[in-house]
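<derive_structure_tokens>
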Amino acid sequence: MRSKSIAVIVVAAGKGERMGTDGNAVPKQYRALAGIPVLVRTIKAFLAHPQVTQVLPVINSDHADRYEALGLSDRRLLPPVHGGASRQASVLEGLKALAPSRPDLVLIQDAARPFVSADLIGDVIEILQSYDGALPGLPLTDTVKRSLDGKEVVATEDRRQLSAAQTPQGFRFGQILSAHMRAGSVRRDFTDDAEIAEWAGLRVAMVTGDPNNIKLTHPEDFVRGEQILMGGRSMETRIGTGYDVHSFEPGDAVWLGGVRIPHSARLNGHSDADVALHALTDALLGAIGEGDIGVHFPPSDMQWKGAASTIFLRHAADLIARQGGRIVNCDVTIVAEAPRIATHAPAMCAVIAETLGISASRVAVKATTNEKLGFIGREEGIVAMASASVEVPRID
């Protein structure tokens, strides 16, 4: 008897609007969690499962470049499709895209649940031998009150009959496709796919959920997520510093903090000579004892000729992630008589934050002059100094 084909739809079309307004413009599914984007963690969790035969991401049409930048590649990973105006509509787009291959089973997973375990995936698949649909559920431990206006309590629910739903939710493909098609013409406010299956009269069962299978919805969820990844390990804080200087040469703009600033000269260097990002890269590398930028990107190597310094900065962040660490904050000071830098500082903070996968509130860029003294005062070049704090697992 042939093995069942099992497809996975990873729903990643949301804008992450509930993540707050802390200056971080990165949608939550593309935001780094311990150095790795959330969506990458979620997709790889399913690609690592031996029973999964194909994975289909459903993304926001505005995020096509972000998705491509993830660099994901696997023979079972299908090209992403664009979602709709709601989660329900996005899932339907995914189901329709899978229809030509007609898998036996389909699992539907929220992109913002990156901690789904292989055991939980297996449990959902297993119970589909006996039911039309399945989902993980966690029994509620708190007493649950009902209120019609958010203030006055009108009833106390029996929590023994209640569970909190998680994903992945699994179904027999033909049945859930039919249910979604019918539901879309009747209602567009179903909260999850299991509710659609119940509405369509399908038999849906629950398996025991996982407390660590959290959904990243609010900023504090990322803190908890990092704690889950640390697995109870104690952390220690490291501090690194960086310093760099570049002279001017004929040109029409300088690169500083990943931002191109028009000027009467440019900075001389093998790469784009971004003195601010070079100093910050050295600070991050120093915090984890990984030498300096020249060790990792020698100026004698022609492949780095004219390279964007965000490449160097991202490499430092990747090294920190591989050590199980996280970047706490970065502070950069640029010393120059010209060009004027202060108005460009917010854009620099945004570039640095996105490159490192952290909130812009964790990045500071400041500018000052040298009061007309020395080579800086003579407008012969620019100096940048940086410091960075990093948390890494404690090594006793």
User: Anything to note?
Assistant: Residues 235-393 form a domain with the 60s Ribosomal Protein L30; Chain: A; fold (CATH 3.30.1330.50). The chain has two domains: 6-230, 235-393. The first strand starts at residue 6 and ends at 12. The chain has twelve helices and 19 strands.
